[in-house]
UniProtKB/TrEMBL annotation:
<feature type="signal peptide">
    <location>
        <begin position="1"/>
        <end position="27"/>
    </location>
</feature>
<dbReference type="Pfam" id="PF07394">
    <property type="entry name" value="DUF1501"/>
</dbReference>
<dbReference type="InterPro" id="IPR006311">
    <property type="entry name" value="TAT_signal"/>
</dbReference>
<dbReference type="InterPro" id="IPR010869">
    <property type="entry name" value="DUF1501"/>
</dbReference>
<keyword id="KW-0732">Signal</keyword>
<protein>
    <submittedName>
        <fullName>DUF1501 domain-containing protein</fullName>
    </submittedName>
</protein>
Length: 394
């Protein structure tokens, strides 16, 4: 049977939901849940370059207010004598006060790139700015750790397409937006009958094997998502729905240790405050629901929620009540197992800039290395090749 172009495209569209390697095809016959009390990482990507200065606000810095005459946040919620947090992140202030949130300021990398696509690739692959990698830092974690995995669902991304961060050389995460929709699509007779007609052509064969793996794994994920449905109320936003899905999976006996989500766009060249307020409001209420859900189920101490954005914004506002692409930024860490809480380092130095941009002080690869070694219990040197030490906040 010859494959028609229309069939090829339909197979490809379903196969992209997983991008799993063919050698995982038979893995669905084996079931391995996470060990009790095993640590779980949730990565929340702020897509588009979030403005860090209007997130963690240098509330006593005259330069900040001078450079942002109409854009500066005047009513930040106090964290320390010098720092405040955007009022739309009021629950983050509560987490901060409870010792359940840490903030790393001035995070970046040498020779920063201000292109959304290139900088995101750098963050997701954990490469140098002059290095181009085809694998991601969490994908390489899967390559190192999944010899112990009995399932290809060790990492999941709640999205229609798999990000570079979760692509390894031999192992890849599984991407989906809605477990039920993925399952229903995978059960269509058309796709199942197509899989029965195997093709020897190398490219087509890969797609058919990936299709078969998707069909099997879709059923597994859907069943786990239904196993322990959450009773916690979540915002009726896409992010709220995504975190509700993650919460249901965490409470089941699925073997997933890493979840990856994103929200955006934070590319606020125009009318920044309104856009940021809306996004922060969604994030604030969603995280509030998620933390309550995890606490009520005794899981919060085993959760680490990490946020990042591909770059920050320039110190000075532009003429459109927005900010343009910048460099260094902060990262949030939320969980019940933090060893160090609050602000982990100093606020950005607004007197010492590089042509109007912040100068990074902390390399994001050191943060990744810390998470891999101290939280995921992986060999960070093999995953990242990073040998310059780690932090001690987890």
């Amino acid at each position: 049977m010859l494959i028609k172009r229309r069939e090829f495209l339909k197979i490809s569209s379903l196969a992209t939901a997983s991008l799993l390697m063919p050698n995982f095809l038979k893995a669905m016959t084996l079931d391995e849940a996470l060990a009790p009390n095993q640590n779980i990482l949730i990565v929340l990507q702020f897509t588009g370059g979030n403005d860090g200065l209007n997130t963690i606000v240098p509330a006593k810095n005259d330069i900040y207010f001078r450079e942002r005459k109409t854009l500066a946040v005047q009513d930040s919620l106090s964290l320390t004598d010098e720092a405040g947090i955007n009022p739309s992140l009021s629950y983050f202030k509560e987490l901060f006060d409870n010792g359940e949130l840490s903030v790393m300021n001035n995070v970046g990398y040498p020779n920063p790139d201000k292109s959304h696509f290139r900088s995101m690739d750098i963050w997701q692959s954990a490469s140098r700015s002059d290095e181009f990698l085809e694998t991601g830092w969490l994908g390489r974690f899967l390559d190192e750790e999944c010899y112990r995995c009995e399932h290809p669902t060790q990492a999941l991304e709640v999205d229609d397409m798999l990000s570079l961060a979760l692509k390894g050389e031999n192992n890849k995460a599984f991407a989906f937006k809605d477990p039920k929709r993925l399952y229903q699509t995978s059960q269509e007779k058309y796709f199942k009958s197509l899989y029965d007609h195997h093709h020897d052509d190398e490219t087509v064969s890969y797609l058919y094997q990936t299709l078969g793996s998707t069909i099997n794994n879709a059923d597994y994920i859907f069943e786990k998502s239904k196993a322990k449905k959450t009773e916690q109320a979540y915002p009726n936003s896409q992010l709220g729905k995504d975190f509700k899905t993650v919460a249901s999976l965490i409470k089941s006996d699925i073997n997933t240790q890493v979840y990856y989500l994103s929200i955006g766009s934070f590319d606020t060249h125009v009318n920044q405050n309104d856009r940021q307020k809306k996004l922060f409001g969604d994030i604030n209420e969603t995280v509030k629901s998620f933390v309550a859900d995890m606490k009520s189920n005794g899981l919060f101490n085993n959760i680490l929620l990490m946020t990042f954005s591909e770059f920050g914004r320039r110190v000075a506002q532009n003429a459109s009540n927005g900010t343009d692409h910048g460099t260094a930024n902060q990262m949030f860490f939320i969980g019940g197992g933090l060893k160090k809480k609050g602000l982990l380092n100093a606020l950005p130095d607004l007197q010492n800039l590089n042509e109007g941009d912040l100068i990074y002080k902390e390399d994001f690869r050191k943060v990744y290395s810390t998470i891999l070694k101290n939280w995921l219990k992986a060999d960070s040197s093999k995953v990242l090749g990073w040998k310059d030490g780690i932090y001690d906040f987890i």
